[in-house]
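Before going further, learn to read the protein records used in this course. The integers have meaning only within a learned vocabulary of local backbone shapes. The record below shows the convention in full.
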Amino acid sequence: MDNNGFFGCLLRKYFSCSGRLNRKPYIYRTIAVTFVSLALAMFLFYFFAGFQPGNYKRPDYKWVHFGLLVMIMVITIWSGFSLGIRRCHDVDKSGWWLLLGVLPYINVAWGLYLICKRGTIGRNRYGDDPIQNDYDRIEDIAPDLKQQHDNFFNRK
């Protein structure tokens, strides 16, 4: 399988449990997975039942509809777990901490913690800092930007 193609990129971004994921991609990808799965479920509901539950065009469509919805749910749950596990890795916690999501009230606090807590700066036991390359690039181009700034404002 090609890991550099479209599907390889999707598998790495949404279904891999290794590595780290910082806050911004975690939030955006979680929202994207939620909306895509809801849109697919609504489309399937309209396609098979026409927004009238029990009004299937053929009786066997009910089971096809049910099977497709189960597949969407399994994919959505797996994607959510993989995103959460990588977010836990970014704050230097094991993916098993994600099980706090089954406890009432604690799940809300844990979710807010994952959304708000800054990841470990630099390398931790789960891998390199996902935004460390951005810091390195800024440090590399900063002298050039300073030189351009000085040249622009010191012209006579």
